[in-house]
Design goal:
The complex is a heterodimer of chains A (113) and B (116). Chain A is mainly beta and 113 residues long. Helix content of chain A is 0%, strand content 54%. Chain A has strands at 4-7, 10-13, 19-25, 32-37, 43-49, 56-57, 64-68, 74-78, 87-95, 98-104, 108-112. In chain A, strands 2, 4, 5, 6, 9, 10 and 11 form a seven-stranded mixed beta sheet that branches. Chain A has a four-stranded antiparallel beta sheet with strand order 1-3-8-7, with no helix packed on it. Chain A is globular and about 40 Å long. Chain B has no helices and eleven strands. In chain B, 0% of the residues lie in helices and 52% in strands. Chain B is mainly beta. In chain B, strands 2, 4, 5, 9, 10 and 11 form a six-stranded mixed beta sheet that branches. Chain B has a five-stranded antiparallel beta sheet with strand order 1-3-8-7-6, with no helix packed on it. The chains are: A mainly beta (113), B mainly beta (116).
Chain lengths: 113, 116
């Protein structure tokens, strides 16, 4: 999806390893979000950032940390990965022209063994 | 406790016919609703939205209907095309819930298959 770029696209970790998921947007929005999607589930908000320098917890923040590096970049860190964190992670910013919507990246598929 | 429910995990429709995807919500404080479409290995894509002050919103082949008294919304796709085959998510939010500064609550999704 143009506008939000996530890296890496795939990653396999062992339990206890750490990792940072990167996200960058070029849509010039202040708000950015991290969601996770598990099989058969809707997307759940992990953390969000309303502007550079601010972050807030969402529904499922435990086990994660975030950094809003600048207006463009919002990273998600797993300090000690657990199998329960196996999921697809989506970064998002606001939808252009609709401040209620979210414009998503293509996701990072993370498996923790 | 699910606040946004999509009770049909899957739906199969013939090309050219109408697809109706349903969504129910429990929280009467929601006042903005959105539909997203998701293809495999891609992120969800915003499709259409509706504010609680309206009961219908149209965009081309896609129409969303909102019944506030029943806490129910539906997405109609007419005519359905094979390229519409995807997972459709309903989502809800409201000013009290933070709007753009906070959370959207997503349903679990309905997988639509449009057969040629």
């Amino acid at each position: 999806n143009a506008g939000v770029t996530q890296t890496p696209k795939f990653q396999v970790l062992k339990t206890g390893q750490s990792m940072t998921l990167q996200c960058a947007q070029d849509m010039n929005h202040n708000s950015m979000y991290w969601y996770r999607q598990d099989p058969g589930m809707g997307l759940r908000l992990i953390y969000y950032s309303a502007s550079e320098g601010t972050t807030d917890k969402g529904e499922v923040p435990n086990g994660y940390n975030v950094s809003r590096l600048n207006k463009r970049e919002f990273s998600l860190r797993l300090e000690s990965a657990a199998p329960s964190q196996t999921s697809v992670y989506f970064c998002a910013t606001l939808t252009r022209g609709n401040l209620w919507g979210r414009h998503f990246g293509d996701g990072t598929r993370l498996s923790i063994l | 406790d699910q606040q946004v429910k999509q009770n049909s995990p899957s739906l199969s429709v013939q090309e050219g016919r109408i697809s109706i995807l349903n969504c129910d919500y429990t929280n009467s404080m929601f006042d903005y609703f959105l539909w997203y479409k998701k293809y495999p290995a891609e992120g969800p894509t915003f499709l259409i939205s509706i504010s609680s002050i309206k009961d219908k919103n149209e965009d081309g082949r896609f129409t969303v209907f909102l019944n506030k008294s029943a806490k129910h919304l539906s997405l109609h796709i007419v005519p359905s095309q094979p390229g519409d085959s995807a997972v459709y998510f309903c989502a809800a939010s409201g000013e009290w819930y933070g709007g753009s500064q906070g959370n959207l609550i997503f349903g679990k999704g309905t997988k639509l298959s449009v057969k040629p």
